[in-house]
Amino acid sequence: MKQKKLVWALRLALICGCSLSPCIQAKEIDLPRMDIVGSEENARSKIPGTVDVINQKQLELLQPLSIQDALKTIPGINIRGDEGGLGSIPNIGIRGLNPSRSQKVLLLEDGAPIHPSLFISSASYYSPPVDRMSGIEVLKGASGLQYGPSNIGGVINYLTKTPEEGFKLSGKAGNYGYQFAQIEAGGKSESNGAIAGINIIKSESDGYQGNGFRMYDILFKGGVAIDQNQWLSLKYTHYDNNINTSYVGLRPNQYDARFSGNPAPNDYFVTQRNAVDLNHSWELGTGTKMNTLLYWSRLDRDYWRQAISGRTADKTSFTLCNGSNDCMFGRNREFQMLGVDSRVTHAYEAMGIGNEFEFGLRLHTETQSNQLVASQSLAKSGRVSSHEENKANSVALFAQNRFLLSKDFAVTPGLRIESYNQSRNNVLTEISGSAKNLETVPQIGASWQLIPELQLYSSVYKGFAPAQLATAISEKGVDQQLDPERSTNFEFGLRGVNNGFSYDAAIFSMNFSNQIVNQSLAAGITKANGGKSLHQGMELSLAYALQSGWGLNGNLTYIPVAKFVGNSSMGKDGNRIPYTSELVSNLGVSYQKNGLNTLVSLNYLSSQFADSANTALPNSIGTLGEIPAITTVNWSANYAINKSLKVFGVVNNLLNKRYISSRSPDGIFAGAPINFQAGMSYQFF
What we know:
This protein has 685 residues and is mainly beta. The chain has one domain (2-684): TonB-dependent receptor, beta-barrel domain (Maltoporin, Chain A). The protein has helices at residues 2-15, 56-62, 67-71, 252-256, 469-472; strands at residues 50-54, 77-79, 92-94, 106-109, 112-113, 133-140, 155-160, 166-174, 179-188, 195-205, 213-227, 230-243, 268-285, 288-306, 308-311, 316-318, 328-350, 353-375, 383-404, 409-426, 432-451, 454-465, 485-498, 501-516, 529-545, 550-565, 583-593, 596-605, 630-640, 645-652, 660-662, 669-670, 675-684. The chain has a 22-stranded antiparallel beta barrel. Strand 9 and strand 10 form a beta hairpin. The longest helix has 14 residues, at 2-15.
């Protein structure tokens, strides 16, 4: 009865949408949003660059604990080991770029940026639950320049589920105290085609390293057809996560002894995020469409860490909290972001050929309140020892035209212009400063449908990422006159489908003329001028549907060159970029029949260096040394008992391999041992 009341309440709210405009004939609508690939049949073939899409069916088959687990199946993506919270803090890199806090990749949700900020501090502290996603889009190559900044390696767009009519309950449980519950409810108006729904998630775990978490997530999403040619959608999300994790990892003897406790039990990473997206879609005429996204978000991140007094091979020692000295420090930050992104696409004929033109304008502003709070006790409060109020604004223009020189061959030149201002203000000392930059980013791409089963594509483009505020402007308010991070990028690939066999292969090169090293309390970096680096490699993905429901899929990323060029503050000439494996591969065998879907997958990651000096031998405290190759096996399955009831489960690290996933920021982070989750869902229609 309660479920029916909730569904009818949603329906009543939707019917009230007729009061905003005259009721129109009901029809099925897709809620407008900013997709970066799109769902059209030929969407992928129009993009002159590498494209990867994980759909909802694949997510259900993978049963990932986090978005990062799903992204591991995409060629070209490298994930640094989890700091805690089962993927709540994302460390994602693309094509050999350092994955630390996902600073080298642009992360979007339904087209809206989900980094806390883009120009002040792009380090990512938030990853939405994968369980409320219907898919993931990944762009690498010139096409990513439509979205920016920090898109040199690529752009990843998380697609949230469209509400479905009815009521659905899902639950999971696993070892290490893992518990998960989800409620999905939706309704649809029969008069104006409007839909709305809510998705509520609660998840918690004790953590395999004593680094437990408790997370809540709420998503409301709805939309209405204003008239026959216009649609409006609204999305609100609330996220709250408290993770008992730290920068501090295990020391060598703790790792060797399989220590399972938390190496920093008093440290907490606390995040809360609220966001609103408003999307408007307008079909202005035949072949002309306008999409506008208004986005706002606020993220509060409090990171409380006990001061370290010493490190040995056996343990980390912490400053005692006895009330006589500062022992706990809260690096507490509040970010707010507001922007509007409007895009017009227009198909037309000119000079005897077909054309597809796209123009975009984005206005963006963001603020940061950055405080360091010192405490003489374990209480998460104390005196403010430093306080900054920072701000950044940007205006970006983008235009491209796809020239259809024949029905099989297209050339797409484009240009992005980004103007941005940054200002830094120390509240306690009243010292302030600012910096201004203007960047022009050109691109050109081409695609050639050689035969129905084979398409060639290629692109050349200029990559750019702004220097973050703490490096662009000194503590004394002086503009450091830093150039943005720049690179010249090239890729060439081929893709196709033939009788159940699909493939995509690409070679790429990213030549950095200037990399910026962002200041970090964790890494102790004080110099910002990074110097040159070169990334070259190839990607390959294959899939084949066999007889009787069997399927094979695999991919690999081979990056023989990921090195510093010339001696610089980043590293010596020829040294390899940290956390860049030479070879990453995935192999999966799946079986689908009579409602059963199951997958066995193998993931391989070759050895990596933990620092730019390429230190091979481990040091005494575990922060340096080569990270050996990693091979893990996962098994997942789901079974639809009937139209309403599904059961599912996954076993990760099936062979219970013991491995080091990271030595950063401070010590050894062990990979997750064998862990399992199992659950069920029931759909009320």
